[in-house]
Every structure is written in C-alpha cells, then in structure tokens.
Specification:
The complex is a heterodimer of chains A (175) and B (498). Chain A has 175 residues and is of the alpha+beta class. Chain A has a single domain, classed as Nucleic acid-binding proteins (OB fold (Dihydrolipoamide Acetyltransferase, E2P)). Chain A is 32% helix and 34% strand. In chain A, the strands form two sheets. Chain A has a five-stranded mixed β-barrel with strand order 2-3-4-7-6. The termini of chain A are far apart. With 498 residues, chain B is mainly α. Chain B has a domain of 186 residues. In chain B, 69% of the residues lie in helices and 1% in strands. Chain B has 21 helices and two strands. In chain B, strand 1 and strand 2 form a beta hairpin. In chain B, helix 1 runs parallel beside helix 3, helix 4 crosses helix 5 and helix 5 packs parallel to helix 9. Chain B is globular, with a radius of gyration of 22 Å. Classes of the chains: A alpha+beta (175), B mainly alpha (498).
C-alpha cells in the first residue's frame, strides 16, 4: 500500500507541480522520534487525517496526521492490532482544508494526504508546541465509511444473562 | 495458628461482592445506553454481555445471604481486593471484543489501568475507537478514582461499611458516617464534572473550533481522566492533541483538584482556607512540587530542547504537574520523554513516585506520608543532637493538631518502604528483559504510582511476565497493599489453615 501511495504522490507532483524539490520526504514516526533533527525544515509527510478539524478564529485549521499500519489498512478490516497510533499535530490555512472528507474515526477512514510544509519543533511562537505547518496538500485517497456489523451472539448472550439474573433474583426474593 | 475460613466466611464475602457487582452493573448501563444512542451496535452487544455478567454475579452473590451480614476487618479487605480484580476482569470484555487488542491479557491490562486510574494502555488504534468504548475506558477511571466501593457505599450502607471504605486506601472520614462521607465525595465530583465538562466543552467549541458535540465529548473524557488523575485520552496524542494553552490550564485545574484529598475539598467548601495551608500535607505537596519542578526545568534547560523560557515553562510545568498528580497526561510524545535524561528524568520520576494527597484520586506514596517521614527523621536527628532528657515536639497539623506517635511513624515507614520495593520490583523484571535502567525505573514507578506516563516500554510486544507484573503493581499500588496482603493471607489460610 505504501508503494501505491508513493506512486500516486509522485504522479501528483508531476501533474500539480507541488513545490517538493527542496523538501525531503520523511515519515511521521521519524518526526516523532527525532523531531529535533528536522526542526524548522521543509519536509513532505503522508498519512491519514484523524480526529477533528478544529477551525480557529485566526484562520487556521488544526487536525492530526497519523501514519501507522492503521492508516493504510484499517484495523476493522485487517483485524490485526499493531500497537499504538503514530501521529502529529497539523496546522494549515482554513481554505486548504475546505472540501476535505471527514477526519478518521470510528465510522470513517480519513482522507489519505501528502503534505509539504515545515516541521515546527517546540515552536517558540507557540510556547514549545511541536506540529507540522502545512503549506501544500494533496489528497492521495478520499476518506471512506467504515462499517461494523452488530455481533448478534453477544447481544443474545447478554440478553439471556440479564433474563437469567432476573429469574434468579425473583427466586431469591421468594427465599 | 491460622484458622481455615469456613463456608460462612465465603458466603459473607460473596454477599458483599454481589452487592458491589450490582452497583457496577448499574454503572455499566451508561456505556450501553451511549452505544445505543450513538448506534454503535457492535460495542452495544459487548456492553450488554458485560451488564449481563455483572448482574448475574451480583444476584448470585446477594442470594448467598449469610447468617450474620456483618463484615469484620479481614473480610472487608478481601472483598475490596477481589472487587478490584474481578471488576476489571469483567470490564475488559467489551475492550477485548472490540478487536483493538492482540491478546486477552492486554484488554485486562487496560481495564486494570483504567480502574486504578493509571492510564498506561496497550490499546491499538485509539484514534478509530468507538465513542462508547472510549466512554467506558474513561468511566472506568471515574469509577476507580472515586472508588467503586465508595459508589456502593453511597447506595447501601450496611454494617462493615467502614472496613470497605478504609480498604480502598482512604484514610480519613470527612463526615461522621461513612455513607455521608461517600455522598459528600460524590457531590464534590459532580460539581467538578459540571464545571469541567462545560468549561472544556466551551473551550473546545469556541476556541479550538470543534463541533459542539465533539467539544463536549472531549470535555467529558478529559474531565474523567483529569479529575480522576487517570490519564487516558480519546486521541493518541493525549492533551498535546488540543494545541491550546487554555485547554491545558483548565485541565491542570482538574488534575490539581483530583490530587487534593477530599478532606481538603471539604475544608475549602467550608471556607477554611487558613486551615488548608496549615496542613502538613498541603505544605509537603507544595514543597515537593516546587522541588521536582525546579529539577525538571533545570534538567530540560540543559538538554537544549526548548529555546525559550515560555516554551520550557509551559511544557515542563504541564508534564511535571501531570506526573506529581499521578494523572499521566502529556503534551510531548513518549519518544521525547524517554530522551529527557539527567535531572529532568530525575524530577519526573521523583514526582511520580511521591504522588498526590491521601484520600484523593491520585496514587504514589502520598504527601502526608512523605511529610510525616521527613518529620520523623528530623525529630530523630534533633533527639540525638539535644541533651538526653530534652523533649522533642511531635505535634503536626493535619485537619487539627495531632501527634506523631511511634505506631504512626512505623506504619508510615512500612507503607513507604513497600512502595519503594514495588518500584524496584517492576524495574528489576524489566531490567532482566534487557530494558535500560532509566526506562525500566520510569515505567515501573509510573505503573506502581498509577501515573500512566510512558517512555515506550508498555507496548503490545512487551513480555507477558512484565505485563503481569505491571498489572500487579497497578493493583497493589492503588490499594496501598493492606487489602492485597489480606487477600493473600486469606488464600493461604484457606489452603494451610486448620
């Protein structure tokens, strides 16, 4: 899946002329683990937008970019937990965020995007917060609905146990 | 000679466990209703199953009907220890069925972590977790922080309630009866809940630009985890997710409120501010907070991670407050936390180990014990230095004038030493698995003191034995040992007694 993402990204750069010439591509986990190394550097990152889109009064939107096994292969489909998420905060101009599909959550796999921007490591202007300041964004893959069918077995078992509890309780009352 | 428990002992314990399970079954209806309203039908089934199991266990227990339903100290402690083992065991069912855990033990780990308000987690992909499951994880922290037993005591009084109350690591009775004390604690919590959720909801909606329903959701989750010093978060980046100094400030207020003893809350409610600051415990926690904060800030300054005083102070203050109150929220990643070597690491580890106040939702050794230990040591030194017949004052102020007796000193020292032993136990096991000393110690203290900050040792790939040790540390640390030892003694007596 990562190969496909890279191919799509390269094609997108060629077609849209994303200013990526000076920016090196890094993974979110590299930024999380060695954030200082990339401080104030222009980089390209890819992943899934998750959580919320927080549109603030200063004309910026904040969200979270995850790049882990779940962003390419949702857990509900792969059924293979691989530990925690790997994510960073992202800030972008509000107009860049317009038209994005809903961020990832229980019901949605968020849009997979590739962004060029600057990694702000313990930014002075924001009292030491670390985040990615996006300057350009490409949607590599639209978001989509995630579904999960009811588990009828647990529903039946649960209802049966509650019914049994009621019977046992009534018998107890009679002594 | 050990006396082997008889059938009546088991009936009595089962009866009280049954009552508590019924209360927990009632509380479990909340995530069930949440899942139904949110139309999250898969978790709905899991919650229904959990409610059914709690209800059945509850009814079976209460049907045991002992001849004399009066709990003695030993029975009460066994009930408390078993409650804190069995509730997370059943409470882990919805977590396990969610598919977000690799093995059943991981789900139990998270449920225990939630109930003991630790906040360490093995959950995979929290960012795509159903809202009802997130609610259940956080509600577990609320139930654990307040004390499940306390919840039960608010509803049924019964004889022996005092034993259960103290068994849950609460050492002061604020009002004359245990039931009224329990109800007061719930009243304080509900007031904070309303204040916390509304404040954080408004901040999330108006300042952070979230949709109103999401802002309230985040507010509720942050309240549960902040006030109950739990540290879970609905997003993987913890409080760093919000990128807001205002949100952090309000969260800090909740963490401080959670780490304060309910006795102190009562004094503040009654307007006794001067008495609050005269308390040994208040003075101790202010001193240790100042000391560990200074250590951490100096340590962080030497790392060169922060280039401004504002950044250093904001980030340093939040992490150290989170560590000292035993909450476990973070605004920096685990990877970065593990790079805080030297003084910053020392400051954080000491803050976690010391913990909050007694009779609060926080873990750790607790400030009153630290204060009394320091007082005992100082008295001992003065006794040596002064003439042989000189009398050294033993008075201290803690909700009134009290005296530091030899018995009190001994019990304080024993519990403090047990905490140190617990910290070393987990660190030793982690070391045996080749984890570096600093990380091993940090994670072990975090688990035992029910903090939840992590440098990355806690992960689904961690060795099973280490996972079991952390579970035991969270359990023993939360109950402050007495109930755990009572249960072990009861089991031993059942096997070897006559």
């Amino acid at each position: 899946m990562r190969f496909v993402t890279k191919v799509l990204f390269t094609m997108a750069i060629l077609v849209l002329g994303l200013p990526a010439s000076a920016a090196r591509e890094v993974s979110v986990s590299e930024l999380v683990e060695n954030g200082r190394e990339f401080a104030d550097e222009e980089v390209v990152v890819s992943g899934e937008l998750v959580g919320d889109y927080g549109f603030r009064a200063d004309g910026r939107m904040w969200t979270q970019l995850n790049s882990d096994g779940y962003s390419s292969d949702p857990l509900r489909e792969s059924r293979s937990p691989e530990g925690g998420n790997v994510g960073i905060g992202v800030r972008m101009p509000v107009d860049m965020a317009s038209g994005l599909d809903s961020p990832g959550g229980y019901r949605e796999r968020g849009p997979l995007v590739t962004m060029t921007g600057v990694w702000r490591f313990h930014d002075e202007a924001r009292q030491g917060e670390s985040y990615f300041e996006a300057a350009a964004l490409i949607v590599v893959k639209d978001g989509r609905q995630l579904t999960q069918d009811p588990n009828w077995l647990t529903i039946l078992l649960g209802a049966g146990l509650i019914l049994t509890s009621t019977v046992v309780w009534r018998r107890g009352l009679r002594g | 000679m050990l006396v082997r428990p008889v059938a009546e002992d088991f009936r009595l314990i089962g009866f009280y466990l049954g009552r508590i399970f019924l209360v927990v079954a009632g509380a479990s209806l909340l995530p069930l209703i949440w899942a139904g309203v949110a139309r999250e039908w898969h978790p709905f089934g899991s919650f229904l199953l959990m409610v059914g199991i709690f209800a059945l266990l509850g009814v079976m227990g209460t049907n045991l009907r002992p001849e004399e339903p009066r709990l003695n100290w030993s029975h009460g402690m066994v009930v408390v220890a078993l409650t804190w083992l069995l509730v997370p065991l059943v409470g882990a069912i919805p977590l396990l069925l969610s598919g977000h855990f690799g093995r059943p033990l991981d789900a139990f780990f998270d449920a225990m972590s939630g109930l003991t308000t630790t906040g360490l987690s093995l959950l995979g992909d929290v960012d795509h977790l159903a809202s009802s499951l997130n609610f259940w994880r956080h509600l577990l922290q609320f139930l654990g922080g307040q004390g499940i037993i306390l919840a039960a005591l608010s509803i049924f009084a019964g004889t022996g309630g005092i034993t259960l109350y103290f068994g849950e690591a609460r050492d002061e009775r604020i009002l004359p009866s245990v039931t009224s004390t329990a109800r007061f604690i719930w009243a304080v919590s509900v007031v904070h809940l309303i204040f916390g959720v509304i404040s954080l909801g408004i901040i999330g909606w108006l300042l952070l630009g979230f949709d109103l329903d999401r802002a309230l959701f985040h507010g509720l989750m942050t309240f549960f985890a902040g006030f109950d010093t739990g540290g879970f978060s609905p997003q993987s980046t913890s409080i760093g997710y919000y990128h807001s100094a205002v949100y952090e400030a309000f969260t800090s207020v909740l963490m401080v409120a959670g780490a304060m003893s309910f006795g102190l809350h009562y004094a503040l409610w009654r307007g006794r501010r001067r008495a609050v600051f005269a308390n040994l415990e208040t003075r101790t926690i202010l001193s240790t907070f100042g000391f560990t904060m200074l250590l951490t800030l100096i340590g962080l300054a030497t790392t060169g991670l922060f280039t401004t005083v504002a950044g250093l102070t904001r980030q340093g203050f939040f992490q150290i407050l989170s560590a000292h109150t035993g909450t476990g929220f973070a605004t920096v990643s685990s990877s970065e936390l593990s790079q805080w070597g030297g003084l910053a690491f020392g400051g954080m580890a000491i803050a976690m180990a010391l913990g909050g106040m007694g009779s609060s939702t926080a873990g750790g050794v607790k400030s009153l014990r630290i204060g009394l230990t320091i007082k005992a040591v100082v008295n001992q030194i003065r006794q040596v230095l002064l003439p042989e017949h000189a009398v050294v004052g033993t008075a201290y102020h803690q909700s009134g004038r009290k005296h530091l007796t030899a018995d009190l000193t001994q019990s304080v020292m024993i519990v403090s030493l047990l905490y140190v032993a617990l910290y070393l136990l987990g660190a030793g096991v982690a070391l045996a698995y080749g984890i570096p000393l600093q990380d091993a110690l940090f994670e072990s203290v975090s688990a035992s003191a029910n903090v939840g900050l992590s440098v990355g040792v806690t992960s689904p790939t961690m060795p099973v034995l280490l996972e079991i040790v952390y579970i035991a540390q969270m359990w023993a640390g939360r109950l402050e040992f007495v109930a755990v030892f009572s249960l072990l003694g009861f089991i031993y007596a059942s096997v070897r007694g006559r």
